[in-house]
């Protein structure tokens, strides 16, 4: 290792040079073994060692390309030289990812401790300012590493990195000022702290969701502008129609007219806003009917249609870009793993070396199975087209097919193996499911009747409910069902099914609730979870299965949505605290002589409670913002702060409503797209998504291949794949079949459904490549006539890739 370290630290011209294809051919044919002949010269020994070290760099760089492909990272941020690889590897280490995530969460959590703080979490200024500097310092480490592997020009040309750098500098400055002055100041920039979390590795799904929202904004903003334009027209019309009515406070000025119609769009002030003018003239209702028909029922519906169309288009565009991006990553990696002797294929030895960096936890057997599955031509080496499929097979979990199909209890002694076999047949039979459905239906009727009896009996409250013998019986039946399924299917198979997990959690909650109710009524809330089990009845009808199946598919992406909502609340909470927190005490008994005065009254005889909707800390702010999201009576909160703070404070509440309206419309479009995709998949593929939930691939190994891959420290050879005799034996069934399985993702379903379009994408890329090559040939021919020489790049790549490959190797 000392010699290898010395070679790595050699001159720039040596360590930044890619080994020539001829050198690799010689190194490969020798088996990659450093000669130990004492008569060999030191120069030859160093040369072979140098080739080995440099090819380890090639393997690592090829793995980086594939990671950039699946992470959708731009190739222009790829490490420039071999020297930059250690910095890249450090920044993409799982422990560094964890540190970056914790630092981001630390900065987010400081909002609970900073002024205005949650009372029981308040920290001294010096403490929270020091913690902020510590978190910012941890986040700054990545910027230093990025500068090391990207270079100055690429670093400052990357918009997200540049923005993060400026934001860190600004927050560093503010934290130092707070620490030196020992006092807080107006800091709206704290609202931007969620951006650090979005930039972390573990928030990739959230980041993509936010990016999709931003990409959908242009047509949405156009529709919002149209919405506000019509609102302004009706505001002017309403002012001229109703401002002469002394009893109508909603249209006295053009400003109040616009605000009243904005609130009317949310229906929160209807019909109150109409009644003064309606009392004067019955015909005035036509104004409000026409306004609501155009704004609420037509333009808002049109907005949803525009959002859905934009979202659906972006989904397919995103799929195409990611798919082609991954293909390009495979091409870049492929060029790093071929030799001059074999420029169009990857040998097994190079693939094994590459997999040590790309999937280091894969065993030699798994690597060999992956390679053999990819090698559909049975030549013992991978072509470029075969290598493109590597993303689909690297996540497979392999096991012999007879083990994949056999029961978990197959190795039990007689008669237990027979008993568990019959038990498996029982719990997987259709009649067993039907029997459980009947029991659940009976339980539903019983719960309904029991609930009605409790509701009409004024002497018994719902909280005083105690489990009766029939409820205990149903819980016992459900517990027995779960127990039999676990024994029949096995623990692993049982808990890999979403419905089984759901049933198990509800059953455990019911059992705990039954025992708890005998001792204390604190388990009352657990017992009320029983009706959720009735959702299983909806599995019977296909339409309901589609709805619930869509919920299952969206579960992971709904987590991203929930995080986006929380971060949006965080953003507006910080701004709200900075603006409105000083006025918290003034909200009590405020708004005298206004229409909302009663809601803020606090006297011995009456209490309006709306003064509790304030921004005194982040928790109170979140509750207030949630009330604004529900929109019922949200204008009362807005009018209260407009009366106490300023008329301009309405802008904050209106912007929050518009932001939430955009997000919620995208959520609806998100759900529509997933549901319609499921229906279209069934029509196009003529099968249900539930039947294709698992990818299953099979590879057959000759008995001698099995011995080779099972031997510890053995050398993997492509001899068996290249030998026609062994392949003939395998095709005749003389071998062990291995099955690889993994859960199919939404991208897999999309590729399968748009299979014809995917072929068009590939054909289009191939045509562009051919045109590019023809152009290069023509330029070469013309340059030769002019006495010049033009080098043709190996790949159709971006400019950065061409420059880096030319300058580095």
From TrEMBL:
Keyword NADP: no
GO cellular component term, pick one: endosome membrane
Membrane topology qualifier: Multi-pass membrane protein
TM region(s), chain numbering: 95-113, 125-145, 166-183, 223-242, 249-268, 288-311, 431-449, 469-492, 499-516, 559-580, 651-676
Gene Ontology MF, one: monoatomic ion channel activity
InterPro entries: EF-hand-dom_pair, Ion_trans_dom, TPC1_animal, Volt_channel_dom_sf
Pfam entry (one): Ion_trans
Residues in Ion transport domain copies: 101-317, 429-675
Compositional bias ranges of the Basic and acidic residues kind: 1-15
Annotated region (Disordered), positions in chain: 1-23
Coiled coil: 751-782
Subcellular location, record wording: Membrane
Top-rank lineage group of the source organism: Eukaryota
Location, primary (coarse class): membrane
Record key words, sorted: Coiled coil, Membrane, Transmembrane, Transmembrane helix
PANTHER family, per the entry: TWO PORE CALCIUM CHANNEL PROTEIN 1, TWO PORE CHANNEL PROTEIN 1
Name of protein: Two pore calcium channel protein 1
Taxon lineage: Eukaryota, Metazoa, Spiralia, Lophotrochozoa, Brachiopoda
